[in-house]
Amino acid sequence: SFLVAAAGGAAGLLLATWAVQTAQRTLSTEHFGYFWMRMAIDGRVLGFTLLLVAGTALTAGILPIVRVLRVDVQKVLKEEGASASVGGGGAWSRAFVTTQLALSCGAGVAAALTGNSLLVTRHAGEELPVHQVLLGSIDLPPDVPRQERTVRVEALVDALAATPGVRVAALALGAPGYFERYSPVELQGSDLEPRSSTTWNAVTPSFMDVFDQELRAGRAFTLADGADAQRVALVSESFARRFSGDSPVLGRAVRLSGADSTAWFTVVGVVSDLHLGVGERERSDRVFVPLAQMTDASGAMALLRTDGDASALAAAFRATVAEVDPTLPVWNVRTLADAQAYMIRLPRTLASVALAGGAAGLFVAAVGLYGLLAFRVRQRKRELGVRLALGADSIRLVRDVLGGALRQLLPAVAVGLTGAWIASPVLQAMLLGGNPRTLGTYVLVGVGFVLAGMAAALLPALRAGAVDPARVLRGE
Predict the structure, then answer these.
(1) 85: confidence class by pLDDT, cuts 50, 70, 90
(2) Of 77, 201, 213, 267, whose Cβ has the fewest other Cβ atoms within 10 Å?
(3) What is the secondary structure of 254-311 as a DSSP string?
């Protein structure tokens, strides 16, 4: 048992090393990526693996020894210790394999849900002009008075908009799906659920034009919404539906703890939603406040909209900023498509690892069931030969083995699916999109496990039906 466990542990470490190196390369393909994150097989991982190998070897070796020491010699000599079922296995063996199948089935549900997240993220941002928008982080001086900062921001936006190839330019604290703020929200006159939160952004008036957002009601931001003007806000249609319902949202005050925990912004307009296309968990409720009315706007971001490939504007963008103010640092110049890919790169990598783990769990469960049935068929070879010699049908023996496998599979799958259903709220926090209690996913995983288990049982069943009675009775 130690030799087998050591061989399995060594093979697992080799596989894990390859998987970790692949994940590391995926995350750090460029400096813009997760260059600050390092994945490696270190001493702690090796130590944990050694403990698993030792524990597995001890468990796998001691339990059979205990069973052997408890054997009743008289029953063995009388051949009374044999079970009457075909392909059943001992109680401990069946319990072990059933538990393994149930846990693997639960892990299979998690893998299927993460796989669905991978499919969902393929459509992230496809409804936005992500390839036509160039982003660039600009650190505005934090110690400049808001009035002076507003003037400098307006001058920078005008210069960027006049850059050849730029259709419209704006400044904001974030972009859709990229470093947007998310914080608790309060709406006057609305009985919100505890800890209700929303996405928000501080923008210049031209931000809505970058993404072709339409004004649905009220008015848009203007240059008059400066530092000393009344604090105002725009909300998306989804925000109005979610938090205001049938009541008018215009004229009501909204407060965002992330923007200013004490300030109230009066809603003056409703704009169309920004759809990121990330599945059922997609949130389109947003609040926009003027960048000029923010106390701290040092971490601003420039957004340039063009009709072609926005990456071609990178050099011109840097040159324009340097011409307006050479002291302003410019960094992370990217298209919105690259920026959104950065945000979902780590969750996609972890989801891929989880998906591979689920597939490995299914394989291990199938091997476990196959091993149990193959052992029991070999153990029952003499009994099977006698039954065939007495006129039993080989098809009946095949059916018996498959039936025993099915009787072991169905309870395990039921337990595994039930456990995954109960744990689904925990799984939801790790998903990029999709409902963790989609019935179709559970049905698909359950059917897949049953089919994989029956496929694993097919070869032992065929061996049971192909036993040669003459060779068995001759003791061969």
Answers:
(1) very low
(2) 77
(3) EEETTT-TT--EEEEEEE-------GGG----EEEEEGGG-S---EEEEEEE-SS-GG
Block residue for tokens 């919100």: 192
CA distance 14 to 16: 5
User: How is residue 139 annotated by DSSP?
Assistant: E
Q: List Cα–Cα distances, 132 to 29, 290, 413, in angstroms.
A: 23, 24, 48
Q: What is the pTM of this model?
A: 0.69
How buried is residue 450: exposed, middle or buried, by Cβ count under 10 Å (0-12/13-18/19+)? middle
For the chain, the straight-line distance linking the first and the last C-alpha, in angstroms and rounded, comes to 28
CA–CA distance, 398 with 457 (Å, rounded to integer): 10
Check: CB of residue 401 under 8 Å from CB of residue 464.
yes
Burial class (CB in 10 A: 0-12, 13-18, 19+), 282: middle
pLDDT in tens, 272-292: 998 776 555 567 899 999 998
Among 87, 90, 97, 89, smallest CA distance to 377 is for 87
pLDDT digits (tens, 9 = 90+) for 389-435: 787 778 888 888 888 888 888 888 899 889 888 887 776 665 655 66
